[in-house]
Amino acid sequence: MCVVTVPLGIPARVTCVLAVGCLLGSRAAQAFPITDPDNPSIVSNAPTPSESDLRNQLQMHSGFGAAAAGGGWTFTPTISGEEIWTDNILNTKNNRRWDLLTIAVPSIAITGDTPNAQVQFQYGPQFRLAARTPQENSITNQLSGTGLFTIVPDEFYVDARAIAGAAPLNGGYGGVGLGVNPNFGTLGTTGTSGLSNQNQIQTNSFSVSPYWLHRFGDTGTAKVGYQFGESIYSQGGNSYVPLFFPTGTQSSYTVTNEGVAQFETGERFAPFRDLVAGDARLGTGNFQGNSYEYTFLNKLGYLVNREIEVFGELGYEDLQYSGTPTTHVNDVIWGVGTTWTPNPDSQVTVGFGHRYGENNVQFNGWYALTARTRITGSYTTGLQTDLLGVQGQLDLTSLDSLGQTVNSQTGAPTFIGTGGFGAQSGLYRIKSFTAGASTVFARDQLSIYLQVSQTTTLAAAPVSAVIPSGIIAPPVGSTNNARTAYATWTHQISDDLLLSTSGSFTINHYTTTGNQQSLAIGVGMSYLISQTLAARLSYAFFDRLVPTQGTTVNNQSYYQNLVLLGLTKQF
User: Fold this and answer.
1) Which of 84, 176, 228, 533 meets the CB 3.0–4.6 Å disulfide criterion with 101?
2) Please, are residues 397 and 415 in contact by the beta-carbon 8 Å criterion?
3) Fold of 3-570
4) What is the residue extent of each domain of the chain?
5) Residue 190's closest CA among 103, 272, 294, 263?
């Protein structure tokens, strides 16, 4: 039975990383952290950069530079101040208005590396004051952090993670971030600071996951855990201090409670490996109402040789989401495939299966061509709302040594948010392909990222839902498409001077509004005056083209220039 609708109810050496491919996105509708002590993040294994490495210079420009010295606990208070000139503070096509923005970001970066705690955390609210346009004053909550705490060695752990920041309300702003984009004033771009209040949305997400993990010798490993998670959209001028609970005049939230239990056989049963897993998640909130997701899966694998494993999986899912209409999936899960593991740094899985009420292709891979070259890929499918999607992405994410979000398995960049679509309400089926490339030399780092996504709306938000203004509501049955290309280049001019550039181009197609295009370009320079004081100068340009007929999208067509001058002091 398919979908039923019920009416009205980076390493220290020179490295080249190429990302291209597909991944079956069962994670699109599931949560719970993907990493644990038996399956550590790829970032955990990255070597410490040398003093001459570009990564070391980038760390010194970031809030985590002081942590490069070694283990233990490091606390780095920082204050950042910026002046931004813009020729279009209101992001409008007509009646363009120039202004001077004063930005202040006091922040704290905490890094812990001890036997019982691995923590990377940075928090700093952004205070923005407009000289000529008081309605553009705002306070934005900004946070990124992950932590793994060992309560009982080899037995009991607690995983905690959070992300908060301003995200573009509309799609296509790759130059300022494809999703949630904390800006602590460290490198040379403007982030979302130049966008008007009505053109950005505060997004918060956090989770706490205690779990028991026990290895029964070579028999197998058991894991039983619980996760509490909450994700929030809030707007209303951002004239209040956003917190990790609903606040302000327009706040939408989704709260999830999830339990997982699984057992995977060990070497005793080789060459067979069997994974039995059950997952139950309950969702509540005023964004999409109530939901539940119950899944049970048995995956049996056979190791043909050291490199190749074949597998088959069989299970059952019972999913229901509130909305207009209610969506219910009550169906069998099945799949077959193979996993190739040519070396410890590479793994490629290919398969075909049935989940979320439809057949789909399965591919997930990362491959180390050489010690300097890695290939990765992602393709996600599933049922989700915006806020459930943010929660699922957070569970797949680690922070690298610069505090940037990356995929825990592949190390590829992760953009937590809605990509090229911007914020939207309702329940939808999503299909998303990503490809990227990142190359690091002695003094240069180049990254290219491509995302192609499609959403098909299955249900509108319930009548009682609270939806912040400006969030689009695609009609039920409509299909929207987004294609975004995003590139960055960082060049170390000298030991103290960095050049950073970024650019993006997005083409969106919405059933109700037709095609939209967005271009974003940024270039900036950062200079280390001392080991604790940095100066920045940058320029950014945005151009957004929206159809003028039959559209309800805020701000429509406009362009904007921004110039930023800033200082950051670490203590």
Assistant:
1) 84
2) no
3) Maltoporin; Chain A (2.40.170)
4) 3-570
5) 103
